[in-house]
Specification:
Low-confidence stretches: 205-211
Number of strands: 4
Strand content: under 5%
Radius of gyration: 18 Å
Largest sheet: 4 strands, mixed
Number of helices: 8
Mean pLDDT: 89
Strand order of the largest sheet: 2-1-3-4
Amino acid sequence: MTQLLRHRHVAVRFAALYGLAMVVCFAAWAVAYAWLPDGVLRGRAGTAMLAGDTAAPTVLLEFLRIAAINLAVTVLFIILPNRMLEVGRWPLGYVPALFWSGAYGMILGSNSLTFAMPERLAPTLAVWGRSGPYEIAAYCLVAAATCGIAQARAPHLFSLSAAPIVPKPDWRSRVHWPALLLAAALLLAACWCEAYRIVKEFGTAAGVPVS
């Protein structure tokens, strides 16, 4: 798996990381569906607190809010960690992408989305009708596109020391820019779909017209 995650072709790196992320997501989803109380994780994630628990009055405003949060998460928790450190042979930005995949699965399984579903959703491929898997795909593609730009390497995740990588990689030449732009487009498209769904389903319930 490590060889695939470090493969020279970005498409292979992305496929390996996204496949692993979906395995983590569905495993966490199954555990949460079976064992966690309904709604136990609602509002506990930092992104959920930033997004709030009410729909914006228009799709555009909701989109801008969701997109700003997701783009900030991408830069702060995937691109910057990838630049800072490699852990063994893994770029550090891979870890948050996998963590979020697991967290999303637990949120789905425990029905802890900000806007709750009528009932718990058992693990199903129908989840690809939601925006979450596409946001995760975008995160994974960003992580794959910025693989190999780290300035230092640590032997393991909880190591207190890291050795600088010499010569220091030039991030501008190491980033796979077409893949990064594609990831940004995918992320924004997923954010728009999510914003439309939120305002349509929950904004109109509160008397807010979809626009």
